[in-house]
Structures are given as C-alpha cells and as structure tokens.
Amino acid sequence: MPAQQKKIIFCIAGVLSFACALGTAAALSTQLWVKGTILCKTGALLVNATGQELEKFVGKIQYGLFYGERVRQCGLGGRPLQFSFFPDLLKIIPASIHVSVILFCMVLIIFALVAAGFFLFNAFGSPYETLHGPVGLYLWSFITCSCGCLIMILFSSEVKIHHLSEKIANFKEGSFMFKTHSEQFANSFWIILVCSLVHFLNALLIRFAGFQFPFSKSKDSGTITGAVDLMY
C-alpha cells in the first residue's frame, strides 16, 4: 500500500483512539450506566395493588460508577434521593468488582491515549521496529480492547449477578422492601462497547495497511531461511 494511504489509515485510527479516550472519560463521570424502575413491594402488598394501581408504587433509579439517584415511590408520591458509592454504599456492594471496573476504565483511557499517540507517530514520524511499529500498534489496540471487554463483563456481573440495583434501592430502608421492576444499561455502558469495537477495528486497519500480525512469519523469510539451510 502507498505510504500516503498508510498515513491516512493511521490518522483515522489515531483520531478514533483519541475519541474513545474522551468518550470513556465522559462515561466514567456520569450516572448514565444503568437506568431502571423499582417496585415498592411492601407498599403494593399492603394495599393489594394490581394493574394500574402498581404505577403508584413504581419508582425510578439510575446510577453510574460514583453516584446516582433513585426516586422512592410508595403510594404517596415520588421522593428523590441522591447517593454516592464512596463511601455510602461500600458495605453493601461488591466493592472489589466495583473498584476493578473503575481501574480498568482508567487503564482504558491511558492506553487509548497511548495508542492514539503511536498511531499519529507512525503516520507522521519514523516508526521504530518494536513498540512504535506495527507490533506496538497491535499491542496497544489489544490492551484497550481487552480492558473494554473486562469492564463490560465485570459491570454486567455486578448489576445482574449481584443484583446491584436492588441493593441500592433497599439501602437504609427499614420497613419497606424494594424489588427491581425493570433494568437496562444506559448510554455510558454502550460507549465502552463502542470503544472496544473501535480498537478491534483499529487492529484490522493495521492489517489492512499491509502489516503482518505479530509473530507471524512471511513467505519471504521462510524462503530465505530455506535457501540458507540448503547452503549448509
């Protein structure tokens, strides 16, 4: 492939990596990771609510990695409540998983910026043969893509397996019990998915630019090696 086309491909990959870093940083600071509704089970059972009457006992909840908001509704109107994970909810949530998600988000931001820098360096500079060259580009893209996948897996397990929304909804609730009525991942979670796909696409762009995958042997090298063996 001509050098000019390679520069264009590396520029596109660098811009995409930089955009992913900014998107992850924005997602990290928002509360748009999970949205859902919570049912005041105790209140609904007290009045034997059914059908449309249940709407008076269905509140809302949304949260991110640091803070969130829930609307408590038990038949007397909605009562909003702000909460934060640190330090309010540390005793009721799987803290190790939650902190790991935050750390992997930071690693994703750092390596996305590193990948963007090296993509642009390869586009406008003179790349070295190791970490600045194609092997390095594959490495940074693989790390960032892996971090994005780990973030989604860990956060999904925290929400679905450990029932994070119910734990938050029942935080400091003495006589009332809340149950998750509906739950879905919001914009910030899908930004992480898009970032993972982008870095996978970047790896394909490197291959499209004409570089072999790491540790793969070209036919020419095999031919040269065979000729040398025949000489001896």
Automatic annotation (TrEMBL):
Q: Where is the signal peptide?
A: none
Membrane-crossing segments per the record = 97-123, 135-155, 189-209
| Major localisation | membrane
Protein name as catalogued: CLRN1 protein
Tell me which UniProt keywords the record has, alphabetically. Answer: Membrane, Transmembrane, Transmembrane helix
Q: Which organism is it from?
A: Baryphthengus martii (Rufous motmot)
The listed locations are: Membrane
Q: Which family does it belong to?
A: Belongs to the clarin family.
- How would you describe this protein's topology in the membrane? Multi-pass membrane protein
Listed GO CC annotations? membrane
Among the GO biological process terms of this entry, one is: sensory perception of sound
